[in-house]
What does this fold into?
Amino acid sequence: VTQFLQAAVYGVVQGGVLALVAVGFSLVWGVMNVINLSHGALAVTGAYVAWLLNTHFGIDPFLATPIVGATLFALGYLIQRGLINFVVNAPIFLTLLLTYGLSLVVVNLLQLLFTANDRGIQTAYASSSFVIGSVHIPYGRFFAFVFAVGVTLALVALMTRTRLGLAISATGMDRGAARLMGIRARHVYAVTFGIAAALAGIGGALFATVNSFNPTTLPSELVFDGFVVSVLGGLGNMYGALLGGLVLGLAESLGGLYLTGSWAQAIAMAVLVLTLLLRPSGLVGRSYFSSRVEV
Amino acid sequence: LVIGAPVSLEGANVVTGQYTQHGYQYCATVVNSKGGVTYGGQSHQLQIKTQDDQSVATNDPGVLDQFNDSGIQFVLSPYGSAATSAAAAEAEKNGQILVDSNGADLSIFSHGYQNTFGVLSPSSTYVTSIVQALSALNPAPRSVAIIAASDGFSQTAAAAGQTAAQKAGWTILPAPDAYKGSTKVAANAQDVSSALEAIGTSNPPDVIIISAHVVEAEAMLKQTSELGVKPKLGFAATVAVPDLGFLQAAGKSGIGVLGSTQWVPQLTTSDNLFGSAKDFATGYTNQFGDVVGGVPAYQAADATAACLALVRAIQAANSTSVDAVRTALKALNFDSFYGHIQFDSTGINASKPMQVIQVQGTTTSEQLVTVYPSALAAGKTAVWPAIQP
It folds into this structure.
């Protein structure tokens, strides 16, 4: 029982980190109908920004998240306005190709700047844990989990209670109608991509406090996780990524308890397939958003 | 003389791939500076023709085919067991000679191939050498948990290590053969918590050994701390320890971790091309500067040694006939900066032992210390127990 509880708790807090990385991926997909394959590379960029701030200025990675977020927001805004905006009306395969190419550029730049060696951000607390009963709850992942919940709630508030959020939602639902209402779609898209990049960067920074990271293998792993979490949770609902992340984390952790090696990951995929069979729009997604994907 | 070499210049193996490439390049530099490769009464400049396999093992047969189409009959291996295994099958099919520098999995040598020769110690020695080193320490462990990644190399290393531990009278926790059950983790996984949960906190082993690559070893260090799984004496982590990424990512938490390595600069053997192990370290570092813990990465030494074996065989054969060079490779029996090189009937350099090192600090000069065998330890000893109660 203890082992099961430990795996379940660990899966939930691990899922928080996954959710944090995935929420931006889901936002761009839901609003812009762009599957951003450079999302993982942007997340890893955020990890390097946090690592630089920690290494050179001693800034704690959690305290560094505003700087990481601002840096990645600016980068994301520029990428959207200067690059992705040109293909936002194009067939989905073109946006896939462009964002994949962008990912390669970012990954190789990171490799040139930082080498491909693994890095990690060392903090005094991230690998420590507090104990409830006999279950260890690691501080680093727990804080990341709390952060993910907080970010999701903030994003929901932004989307539902501010003019910017309503503009983003409106543009995501019907760009033409939004334009007729005076919304500058190009700017809204850029802000959306900027927010997603900021969330990716923050997710990457927090990921780096609890895991090692590098520019070669991690970006594609994070994109894969983001994709699975988004599909699992469903598009068009800001809680989707959080829920998807938690379910994926839980499935992987409990899967590891009963199956060995890479078979444990099969459990997570089985959960995804089962969810899509029962709820094709994801756990809390809206069918309108997923049906727009021209695959 | 053109020798082919698939190398990983992008993708997951880019770091070790570059060490391998540099090892081959260093070999060519030194061989050519000493007059080149002599056969047929003439001296020939050595050229290493490299081609990127993008860290994808299934690309390697294609690279070997391209070499074959270009008339290149002698090939040095890519980095890693999976890539080398794929390359070895193609070399056999094409009738090319493959000298393996960085693929240690025993399965590469289990097919009866006649054209593949590996200079490095096989996978079965990685955990075994750690068990031997631990047995010589005071206090010696009496129990061990072995976590292993799901790839063939890691599983073979764990299996041999478990046998050695059982012979030493150690208890295997949480259960014998757990390395292929409850403590088996996905290769390159960032999460090894399931294996640690299986080991548990109520009856901790004296030592936890992880038979895996860098990512899994880094995850183990982080997650043992997170989950409160604490061995009584210390950790060991095969190939991760002599890796710059592991040392950087682990930081202070890596101090005390033992690991196995194919080569250390304290080796006492030498050869007429590269001199002693120390000479190799100096020459290589001067040319490339990419060092791990102050010395060249062992993958670079592996690569130079593979190239050296092939050059020696071509010179001994006095020709570039594949049959003659194969025969000469089978007959090789010499000391080098890398240790003794002599292939058994399956193509393995079976007599070559591995060494065990320990992370003893975070600055370059003290990061990696050779602790086993004691004859190579140069008066330094392992910090043991590495974990204080």
Summary: The longest strand of chain B covers residues 143-149.
